[in-house]
Automatic annotation (TrEMBL):
<protein>
    <submittedName>
        <fullName>ATP-grasp domain-containing protein</fullName>
    </submittedName>
</protein>
<keyword id="KW-0067">ATP-binding</keyword>
<dbReference type="GO" id="GO:0046872">
    <property type="term" value="F:metal ion binding"/>
</dbReference>
<dbReference type="GO" id="GO:0005524">
    <property type="term" value="F:ATP binding"/>
</dbReference>
<dbReference type="Pfam" id="PF02655">
    <property type="entry name" value="ATP-grasp_3"/>
</dbReference>
<dbReference type="InterPro" id="IPR003806">
    <property type="entry name" value="ATP-grasp_PylC-type"/>
</dbReference>
<feature type="domain" description="ATP-grasp">
    <location>
        <begin position="140"/>
        <end position="318"/>
    </location>
</feature>
<keyword id="KW-0547">Nucleotide-binding</keyword>
<dbReference type="InterPro" id="IPR013815">
    <property type="entry name" value="ATP_grasp_subdomain_1"/>
</dbReference>
<dbReference type="InterPro" id="IPR011761">
    <property type="entry name" value="ATP-grasp"/>
</dbReference>
Length: 407
């Protein structure tokens, strides 16, 4: 049974108005913590899973149990079977994958379609669609196929491909599987880089560089319908890409664009789009993340976004306009620098800092804040154990880079 068929089969038995059992993956992520808090605050029984024993979500009073699993990137089959075992043992009603383990799970399900019981709803689409939306080059081709305007782009597999590009404009160069604005090059046509490494399984995309207002979105969707969404401008960010603060804004053009694309693709899952709104050329999406994104942190318990996770609401649920959240440590370390580079005053930054809520620290759930040192120590131990760098241990253990499942 496909992911979409399974979602439909389970839908009649699920209701956000009665408590359900939910499993949230990758508990070390602040996004997972936010989702667990939102669902737990609505009365649902929330379980989290991770490969490390002291993931930050474990310390939340909204979480009833933490489950250890293998590492999804390096042991994808073992991880997926472990998740399915937890679902069956705990009688889980809804599985929420958070980051790129979504792609890994969709690929495993393609090989093992009966891995999960029909009683459990999976918040994801079939692998073919997940892959096409996640791969930055295939995503642009997907937009082309349904007649959506795109910025000019090309696939770059080698130095010869790069040298042969006939772009006479500045363009971005990034790998088709990358996360968090990793290793992006802003390239002038007369100054192409000569020191790139080329991986046949993860080539580069050259994409026209366009100026304009930047926005990031987050949506929860079932069967081509949007049930919740959030939108925030890219303001305080590391190198203009990785956001440190989030403020809900309204943009009807973007909301309509998302509604149309989700409907045309018949998408099920969480999804975020990165937009550029140019005053002369209009609205374009740069890339897509068919998974949870930071926008989920803008929702608050009173929004009852848990209803969207069960597709129970009629009107689209959005955070209240102007609500502002931040990753406090990141803002403290990088936000002031970004603000000063743009000519803003320190007073202006401090004003924004004071009016923005920290996403980790919550008065009625202080466990994660106190648990952060232990969680960080856990990540450092993981990095030493597997001889990887800290970002790899913290976030990229679930990164999917197009590799096929082991045979």
């Amino acid at each position: 049974m496909s992911a979409s068929d399974r979602a439909s089969a389970a839908a009649s038995a699920l209701s956000a108005e009665s408590p359900k059992r939910v499993l949230v993956t990758f508990g070390r992520s602040f996004l997972s913590l936010s989702i667990a808090r939102l669902l737990g605050s609505a009365g649902h029984e929330v379980h989290v899973a991770d490969a490390v024993p002291f993931a930050v979500s474990r310390f939340s009073n909204r979480v009833v149990k933490m489950h250890r699993t293998p590492r999804p990137k390096y042991e994808p089959l073992e991880w997926a079977f472990a998740i399915a075992g937890i679902v069956r043992a705990q009688k889980i009603d809804l599985l929420v994958t958070v980051h790129e383990e979504t792609d890994i799970l969709a690929q495993v399900i393609m090989r093992y379609p009966d891995l999960f019981p029909d009683s459990c709803r999976l918040l994801l689409s079939d692998f073919e669609l997940e892959h096409a939306m996640h791969n930055k080059y295939e995503y642009q081709r997907l937009l082309d196929s349904i007649g959506v305007p795109t910025l000019r782009y090309a696939l770059v597999r080698s130095q010869d491909d790069l040298d042969a590009l006939d772009f006479d404009f500045t363009f971005a160069l990034k790998q088709v599987f990358s996360r968090g604005a990793q290793d992006i090059h802003k390239v002038r046509p007369d100054d192409k880089p000569r020191d790139l490494s080329f991986n046949p399984a993860n080539p580069w995309i050259a994409q026209e560089w366009l100026s304009g207002d930047k926005y990031c979105s987050y949506s929860i969707c079932y069967d081509g319908k949007v049930y919740a969404d959030a939108l925030y401008p890219v303001h305080y960010a590391i190198d203009g890409h990785s956001c440190l603060s989030y403020e809900q804004v309204e943009h009807e053009g973007i909301a309509e664009w998302i509604r149309q694309r989700v409907k045309e693709l018949n998408f099920t899952g969480q999804v975020g789009f990165d937009f550029i709104d140019n005053p002369e050329r209009g609205l374009f999406t740069i890339e897509c993340n068919p998974r949870a994104t930071s926008g989920v942190m803008l929702f608050e318990p009173e929004d009852r976004v848990d209803r969207a996770f069960f597709a129970e609401n009629d009107e689209v649920i959005r955070p209240r306009p102007g609500v502002a959240k931040m990753l406090g440590p990141g803002m403290a370390m990088y936000g002031w620098r970004k603000s000063s580079l743009e000519g803003n005053t320190l007073r202006g930054f401090l004003r924004d800092f004071r009016r923005t809520d920290e996403v980790i620290v919550q008065r009625d759930d202080l466990g994660p804040a106190f648990g952060v040192p232990l969680a960080v120590g856990n990540i450092l131990a993981q990095a030493l154990r597997y001889r990887v760098n800290v970002p790899e241990a913290f976030m990229y253990e679930n990164e999917w880079d197009g590799r096929p499942l082991p045979t």
